[in-house]
Known about the structure:
The chain is of the alpha/beta class. The protein has helices spanning 5-20, 25-33, 41-56, 58-65, 73-86, 102-112, 116-121, 124-134, 136-145, 163-172, 199-202, 211-220, 237-245, 259-272, 285-290, 316-319, 322-339, 362-370, 387-390, and strands at residues 152-156, 178-179, 186-189, 206-208, 227-230, 251-256, 277-281, 295-301, 343-353, 377-385, 395-402.
Amino acid sequence: MRLHKNLVWAVIQGLESIVNKEEQADKAVERILKTDKRWGARDRGFIASTLYEMVRYRRLYESLAEVKAPYKRSDCFRLFGVWATLRGHALPEWPELQGTPVRRIKGRYEEARKSRVLRESFPDWLDQRCVEELGEKRWEAESAALNKEADLLLRTNTLKGNRQDLIALLKEEQIEAKALPKIAEAVLLPKRANVFRLNAFKEGRFEVQDANSQRVAHWVNPRPGEKVIDACAGAGGKSLHLAALMENKGQLIGLDIFPAKLKELKRRCRRAGVHNLETRLLDSSKVVKKLKGSADKVLIDAPCSGLGVLKRNPDTKWKLDPDFLKKIQERQQEILQQYSSWVKTGGELTYATCSILPSENEKQVELFLKSETGKGFKLLKQETLFPSETGFDGFFLAKLLKES
Ligand SMILES: C[S@@+](CC[C@H](N)C(=O)[O-])C[C@H]1O[C@@H](n2cnc3c(N)ncnc32)[C@H](O)[C@@H]1O
């Protein structure tokens, strides 16, 4: 494939913004793709996948290009030279790429591959932490799986139609789509497509949502007519799914500490035809008290390290630090302690994270069950969905029954 200058320029700009200005990778890609309407699907695909790959393998590429952040413009081209060399592209004769030491890059790559922290590009502290918690063999598999490009998955909004109808609608738009056998609403798109431009999206017939993320609402298993609380609803990826499983019947309450996220959730509800969801801002202890002992099902989709979703947000690797991890784990326990009070006797609590670290998952559940608040609860089941085994994002799920 020929490398086009304007596409490479877009990649370089994105890289500068993600690394030097700490713009979130998905936001940077979205912003850059809007800058030129003439770019077709292949061009857009090239920009997005190249940028993601350069962020994913940032440590490896920095070591081979012998550059360090923050990047100068010339550093970005050196990094791009490494990417192109490893990908087997013939380097264009642009002045910016003159002098790229192709043979040296290849030689150094053979050496670098022997070290996981370089090959899979993780900071030393995070690699060590993952080995300590998951063991060498498991982390070897997960570190590689987390560097794979994320598949594009849709969740059929069953409030607006069934999965076969959605697949037929996509076919009319020349988009290949496959039903995933094990997840009732999931549709896999083998080839990338800009699905947000489709009428089916504007009409709320589907959401873009990872397959393992779609398992969360099924674990909660809400029934039409029940009272269900989504404690950390954010912009509502899981809430919308819960509402669909409830067939819009019963009461669904979505809470978060950020008003902007709840506003976005309401907007998404309108598009999805969700009528049984009410949002509440968690801005005082009164809001927490008022819901005590009231819910049949509570979902805590807790804030976490995001280690399970590195495929989607590879820049997280470079933003995490040990102090953040410690603080987020304290917050997870506080959240469990507080919001578990909303479950009524005989009701269920689902604790979920998009992390694969036991210290954010099983250990949090264990700590909760040993605490005074956790005494009335019984663990029904728990599972870590590993990217290396499932091919999708990493998630943890635990279901607890409130017995007394
Ligand atoms: C993993 S995200 C949830 C994603 C969301 N459930 C979805 O499916 O799109 C965690 C959410 O918890 C929220 N959060 C952080 N601290 C919180 C707290 N103390 N109480 C409630 N929500 C909190 C964050 O704002 C964030 O939206």
